[in-house]
DNA sequence: GCCAACGTTGGC
DNA sequence: GCCAACGTTGGC
């Protein structure tokens, strides 16, 4: 079992949306970055745990946990010409992008803000806290996962 | 709204 | 295959 962090804009899909339908499998679509796609396609496994990170909001930070309920399959939005995520170069025979499904697991009492993550020295290797980082799907080591959980515990 | 950082595109 | 131009991300 592995750990991950997925970014989402809460206007699009938030931890509250997941929590509102805890039995539902949510399509995690719209990943359009090759490095992020390769993680989804090659490494994300069933029942892996995922920190849900809220980006482009105030304040950005980790809001809760989801689990992987379906491993990678072709992202349907790449074939949909009315979608923002449409990709004319993708075909059903040769899909370019993949999606996974996630399920709600937990919402933290308080969001763990990015500035706290940045202050915590042992997390400095995470792409998340590095300047200019744009990776929307990233692995989280066992140690990082435990350290972040303890930060959550401290502030709750 | 600004803009730094970064990924992608396309001409050569 | 280089690299300038461009578009996007995402914190501030």
UniProtKB/TrEMBL annotation:
Ranges of residues in domain EVE: 2-150
Matching Pfam families: EVE
CDD domains (UniProt xref): EVE
Protein name (database record): EVE domain-containing protein
Species, as recorded: Alkalimonas collagenimarina
């Amino acid at each position: 079992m592995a750990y991950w962090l997925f970014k989402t804009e809460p206007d699009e899909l938030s931890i509250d949306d997941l929590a509102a339908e805890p039995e539902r499998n949510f399509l995690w679509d719209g990943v359009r970055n090759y490095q992020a796609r390769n993680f989804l396609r090659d490494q994300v496994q069933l029942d892996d745990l995922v920190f849900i990170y809220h980006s482009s909001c105030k304040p950005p930070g980790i809001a809760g946990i989801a689990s992987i309920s379906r491993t990678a399959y072709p992202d349907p939005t790449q074939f949909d010409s009315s979608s923002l995520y449409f990709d004319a170069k993708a075909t059903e025979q040769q899909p370019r992008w993949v999606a996974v499904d996630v399920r709600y697991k937990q919402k933290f009492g308080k969001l763990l803000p990015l500035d706290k993550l940045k202050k915590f020295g042992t997390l400095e290797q995470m792409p998340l806290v590095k300047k200019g980082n744009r990776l929307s799907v990233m692995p989280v080591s066992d140690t990082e996962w435990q350290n972040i959980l303890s930060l959550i515990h401290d502030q709750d």
